C-alpha cells in the first residue's frame, strides 16, 4: 500500500541530501557558493524536483510491485519497468522545467520548447534513475528475505509435524509389542504374566511421560532400559545377559526418548534367545555415543518389520542434529551407536504473536511520534519564510536566516529518520531485533 504522507517525508529527506551533496561537489570543484536569495530559490526548486520525481517513481514502483510481485524481477518485466521508469522521469522533469520556467518565471512557451536540450535533463535524470534503482534493489532484497523466511517457516513446520508423528509412533508400537510379550507369557508362565502386567503399567506410564519430549537425560534412559529389560527377562529368564552402566559419564548428556528401549526390543526380536544360545546385550559410552551391542545369532525366519524401531531413531536424530546414528555389523555382533547430545544450538521456531495490548500501545506511541514530526515540519514551513521576510525587511545585507533554516532543517532530517527510517541502525527496530534475538537464543534451542 502506497503511504503518501510517509513517502513525501522520505522525498523531502532525500532532496535535502541531494542538495547538500550537490553543494559539496560544487564547492570542491571551485564554484563559489553565496548564502543569498538565489541559493534559497535553488533549494526550493531542488526540493520540488526531489518530491515530484520521488513520488512519481515511488508510486510507479509500488504499482509494478503489486501487479507482478516476485515476477517483477524476471528479465522481461524488469526491462519494461526500467524503461517506463526512465520515461516517467523524463516526463516529470519536462513538466517541472515547464512549470518553473514558463509558469513561474514567465518565459515564452515557444522559446522554451525550441531551446530544450538533453543536457538540461541529465543530472535530474541520473539522480532519479539512481533512486529508482535503489527502490528495485531494496524490494528485491526484501523479497528474497521474505521468501527465505517463508521457506524456513515451512521447513520448520514440516519438521515439527514430522517429529511429532515419529514420537506418536512410539506409544502404540510399544504397547503392541508389550502385549505380544504378555500373550507369550500367559501361555508359557501365568505367574510371570501377572508380574509382567504390574510392571508393564509402570513402564507404560514412563512411555506416556517421555514420548512427548524431544530429549531425555542418558541417566533416565538407562534407568528405563533396566526396567524394560526386567520385563523381558520375565519371559526369557537366563536366556538374556544384560550389561548396563549405573549412570552416564556426564549428567547433562541427553538422547532421544525411548531410543534404548527400541534398540533392546530390536535385538530381542531379530535374534535367537534360548538358554543354550543366550543373547548378550551390552550398553556403554564411547566417543560421544551411547552404544548398544549384541552378539549376532539371527533368526532364520523373522516377522516383517514395521519399520518403527531403527528407522524411527534415525529420523528423529536427523531432525534434531547433524550427528547421525551409526549401525555396524560383522559376523559375530550387531552394534548401534546413538549420538549423545550435550551442546545446545539455536533453532528457528515461530514465536508466539504479541498480545493486542502491546501492539496497541506501540501503535499509539508511533502515532504520537508522527503527530510530533508533522507539527515540527509544518512549523518549519511557516516559521522559516516568516524569518526570511523579517531578515529581508530589517538587515538583508547580513542574511542570518540561513542559520535557523539549515539548523532546523537538520533537526527535521534527524526527526524524520527517527520516525520513518530507523530499521537498520540503533533505533527502536534495532532494540526489538536484539530483544527478539536474545529471547530466541534463550528459549528456542535444539541439541547438537
Automatic annotation (TrEMBL):
This is LytS/YehU family sensor histidine kinase. Keywords: Kinase, Membrane, Transferase, Transmembrane, Transmembrane helix. Residues 161-239 form the Signal transduction histidine kinase internal region domain. GO terms for molecular function: phosphorelay sensor kinase activity. GO terms for cellular component: membrane. Residues 362-440 form the 2TM domain. The chain crosses the membrane at residues 12-28, 48-66, 78-104, 119-141, 373-394, 400-420. It comes from Olleya aquimaris.
